[in-house]
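haha ok so turns out i had the wrong file open the whole time. this is the CORRECT one, sorry everyone. sequence first:
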Amino acid sequence: MIKSRFQFLDRAEAGRQLATKLIALAPDRPVVYALPRGGVPVALEISRGLHAPLDLLLVRKIGAPGAPEVALGAVVEGARVETVVNEDVRLATGADDTYLERTRQRELVELERRRVLYLGNRARLEPTGRTAIVVDDGLATGATAKAALIAIRSQGAAKVILAIPVAPQETLAELRRHADIVVCLHPARDFQGVGAFYSDFHQLTDEETIGLLRQAWAEGGDTAPEHTRRRIAVPPLGLVGDLSVPPNPRGIILFAHGSGSSRLSPRNITVADRLNAEGFATLLLDLLTAEEARDRRNVFDIPLLAERLLEAAIWIAGEPDITDLPLGLFGASTGAGAAMLAAAELRGRVAAVVSRGGRPDLAGPRLAEVEAPTLFIVGGDDREVLALNRKALNALTCDKLLRIVPSATHLFEEPGALEAVTDMASAWFQHYLLAPSHVPAPAGTQTKSQTSVAAVLRAAAEPLPSLDDPTFAATFDRFAEARVVLLGEASHGTSEFYQARAAITRRLVERHGFTIVAVEADWPDAAAIDRYVRRRPHQPMSSTPFTRFPTWMWRNKDVDAFVSFLRDHNATKVPNDKVGFYGLDLYNMTASIAAVLAYLDRVDPRAAEVARGRYACLSPWSREPAAYGRASLTEGYALCERPVTRILIDLLQREIQYAKNDGAEFFDAMQNARLVADAERYYRAMYYGAHESWNQRDQHMFNTLQNILAWAGPKTKAVIWAHNSHIGDARFTDMGMERGELNIGQLCRQAYGRDAALIGFGTHTGTVAAASEWDAPMEIKAVRPSRSDSYEALCHEVGGDRFLLDLRAGQHDDLRRVMAEPRLERYIGVIYRPETERWSHYSYASLPDQYDAFVWFDRTSAVTALPTQVATGEDETYPFGL
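then structure:
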């Protein structure tokens, strides 16, 4: 390409020069619109200079038939889509209406994909009554800029300014007809292309574009979103950390300090602030307790520091607003060695690693096991550390790079040195930490307005009477032929969901012969209720049932009333007809171990002695089972898998001998042994990411259900109570489509087909019992009204207090059709964070594919929790001790 004598260094320099010109114009209430991607760095500098908010104006060219490089027109995305057609080109090429509309629809889908990619759910900046400044890095034909100017004018801008660094003079003449003011730094007579006017005119990546936009939002503008910042404590030692989460985070970066540094390190805080501005969550964590920090030797204990990073990774996996984010590690000094060791152990859970002036060589032979792309940044004058980094780089087999900051020393204290480090680290994380994003509907999908969709819902919605009306439950008789009926809940602390499930289950038990109630609770805890409702002998437990966090989930008045019904119902039934109450979950490993040993003590004391020795492998981790997974990971093998599995095998081999005394007790012991074996695998899986441990847990739930049904007999039928996230088919949610997660609802559908009925529940607003952190006290929290872009908002528009949507094929096909396009759906678990609700509690799903039916309560209330203190006397045999 012929170089122009006039050149900008890069787009940012061009933007600063334009900003100077625009400041002199003193525009009234300016808002800056960039044409991506090249216009974004130019517009960022203008936004800074004017202290004006920045948004995107997304435009796509419509190519002529047979000559796509020729602009037939352009389409501009926005609250009102604008299409501009070049009638001369249309006449010359013979483009008809069919071609134009088909091409227009295709480009609109691409525009929506880009808006979601670049902006997520960020609201558009409306130009009404303001000065709209449209910015690009240069123009050639000006077709897209012309469309943008026409569109922004039609959207109500009071004044329209076009700001560009360079353009041909003849193009500018045409564009002045559509803009009030055109500011062009170099109107070119001799034009060989925009790139000829820049020294650096590289094609921007999506990652760079997103990073620049986040800088603008973080620095100000009148709609800059707030970060959430909170002090956290990582178990089991309560290590203190500072977590910062921006809106719609792209990933989370865990800092590993070294050489005695803490989370208060000014250098790390500076780097973290920059990463926050570009959309990354950060966790600055003290890796040592106050007492440990007093011993200088601990800052060189790389395995100890790496273990603390593993604990933090597990904590992150349990936090609803960050659990699914790609994880990056940022190490400094000896913390870099710990980061490399942690990356070797976490493997695919870590998406990228950066070391700043670090000692990655301290990870030793484990460097060869690191899979995550790794960047080493070293000062050019830090010669000894540079040599060690080169040696460590040679040991790596992953994607790797060594970057040197010229003339910088170990702490990067020279002017501009830390900024250079931050730029390098930011670019590395932007490239490798890619969070999954929702993909809009494919071309051809017709998106109906919210109002028209609500009208279809209103026609299909079946009003429900009050919960205490017997006809409420009768509405669900249509699902009574199923082998398994799965009843969900949109939160673990909403009374109406518990009451509705109790009423429906009672109907299925009394009228339709269901004899199994299986719930999202631990097997040994639920077994205490089962013995109570079947009027079987009480068996003392090592701990009171349902006192492990979250206690309110099962120790509440609604469950208490349902348990009383089951006991009264069973009072007149023969043993085989009594309804059983079972737990599907696997958390309470300690209670299950105690139950297995208590059973063997009764039936085979010698076997109990052997089992006690084998379970002793898990004893050191009985109070903190997650630490077992960490220990197994560090050792490189499953420490206790073989002994706990051997106990299960021994029980199976002695089934005939043991079961002849009491089949129910043997089955209970078997399930407890299975729980221990699965829990052992679950706590190991936690270190490889939330999706692997989730899959392990839900597979255990499904296997437990299968075992219950097999033991109870081929004609038995079951009701399952669990959260919507477990009972809705995961294949039609972000869980399955983007994270590879399965759940019990999906597995039941695959196993039973139409003999599985999946029924979800939802609400618009009200109150909920929930905590703000894991193991924190229960609070009664206000549920925010549902988002306008959610399924819940659609249901709220229907009106009415309660209704049922039958989503099965053939029932309301128009309903299934208009609701098929994925929307946001709200999930509240035991933790509820209203301040980060979009990222903590909403996820995309296709409701009619996810459920067979959906039950709606417009306003709901929190459950009433029961006390956990068990009274003395005969009532202590009752699970809730009342």
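Residues 221-225, 436-448, 871-877 have pLDDT under 50 and may be disordered.
again sry for the mixup
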